[in-house]
Amino acid sequence: MNKKLLIAGVDPGTTVGYALIGLDGNVVELASEKHLDLNTLVARVVRIGKVIVVGTDKGKIPAFVEKFANALGARLIKPDEDLGSGEKASIIKGYDIGDTHQLDALAIAMFSLKRIRSLVKKVDNYIEHYGKHKIADRLMELVVSKGISIREASDMLEKPEKEESKIITKVIEERKFEEKDFLKLYSKLKGVERENQLLRQQNNNIEEEIRNLERPRESKKPYEKRFNQLLRQREKRFFVLERELSSKDTDIDVLKSEIGKLHGFLAALNKNFLLKKLDNLGKVEFEKKGKILNVSKGDILFVDDPNILSDKTIAAIRNKVQVIVYNKKPGRKLAELPFLFIDSKKLDIEEDNYFAVVSKELFEREKNKLDILNKVVEDYKKERSG
């Protein structure tokens, strides 16, 4: 299944805000995070979809945004001059979600969509008129992000002699934290490297063809028009393949980063406990990450805000989880739940997107303190009731 085509708005800085929207304008992802690095941001967005346009609100493109766009092989869109706060506010009028960084990023994404809307409409009309639904997403990507004409992009995708290598359809799959999934990632990495080798060979062949076309020929004038046309087509194919290589190199970096983290986690498990991460205990969050985390009996959860919860989630974890590590302090109503809550600030935690590891020694120390405290409270209650 093809990944959803996306437009990304990025607001760089100490806190990076980013927004992902579809070509229909619907919001797909809206987030912000302090000290968010480029590789982590790239890894997140490639899981969600295929970014074909990256936007900025600055007349002079920030280095972070430019590197992000280049890493994804996406088209960069910028205003002629910096977008003012009033202009951005009018673009996202009616949206009452997110913080200022997220809203700025959303305004940038919407501004970028407006810039390409007429081109997107032309491609959609072409797809409908000529029945090109099988290549719709790839056609849209080539035209919008690579600057290829609709007709030439269609020919490149449908004519066997011009068919380019397929890009990776899935870089990082949803996974449980098991050794077999680590091996899948490693196998996928090797596959991408083999594809890169083939693409580079294709580039070498195209360069040779261009050199041959540029050599002086006898009676060139009658064929000059055809010669120039072929030359342009070859140069465009060369450009597309170069962008594909850049995108695949990024995929490799992302996979290597994922594998490195998995190496670290696997190596550390003898002295650490594995924590399974959730943003909250709400129904949507648990259903979204449930298949990946595979919460089982004896698991420890690391929940950012346990105060957001649903009865369905509590029922699902009640007989499996005993301890929940938290960032935001639980409210009084959570005291009635059958879980032991430990403050993450008292532990030394190393995090990934879905998992974390914590020192067994520190964890057991804090758990024992709370066990003793809870026993004292229970004994006191019994004395009072007796």
Your description of this structure?
The chain has 386 residues and is of the alpha/beta class. It folds into three domains: 5-162, YqgF/RNase H-like domain (Nucleotidyltransferase, domain 5, 2-Layer Sandwich); 179-267; 270-385, no CATH class. It is 53% helix and 18% strand. It has a six-stranded mixed beta sheet with strand order 9-8-7-6-11-10, with helices on both faces. Strands 3-2-1-4-5 form a five-stranded mixed beta sheet. Helix 1 crosses helix 2, helix 1 (38-48) crosses helix 8 (224-268) and helix 7 (179-214) runs antiparallel to helix 8 (224-268). The chain is elongated, with a radius of gyration of 26 Å.
Please give a handful of descriptors for the protein shown:
single chain; 386 residues; alpha/beta; Nucleotidyltransferase, domain 5; 3 domains
Shape: elongated
Biggest sheet record: 6 strands, mixed
> Helicity level, as a percent range?
40-55%
Number of helices, where a helix is a run of at least 4 consecutive DSSP H or I residues: 11
Number of domains: 3
Q: How many whole angstroms does the radius of gyration measure?
A: 26 Å
* Structural class designation: alpha/beta
Mean pLDDT: 80
Low-confidence segments, ≥5 residues, pLDDT <50?
Answer: 160-179
Number of strand elements = 11
Regarding CATH, which class of the largest domain?
Alpha Beta
Spatial gap, N to C terminus: 65 Å
CATH superfamily of the largest domain: YqgF/RNase H-like domain
Strand content: 15-25%
SSE string, helix = H, strand = E? Answer: EEEHEHEHHHHHHEHEHEEEEH
CATH topology of the largest domain: Nucleotidyltransferase, domain 5
Architecture (CATH level 2) name of the largest domain: 2-Layer Sandwich
Spatial strand order of the main sheet: 9-8-7-6-11-10
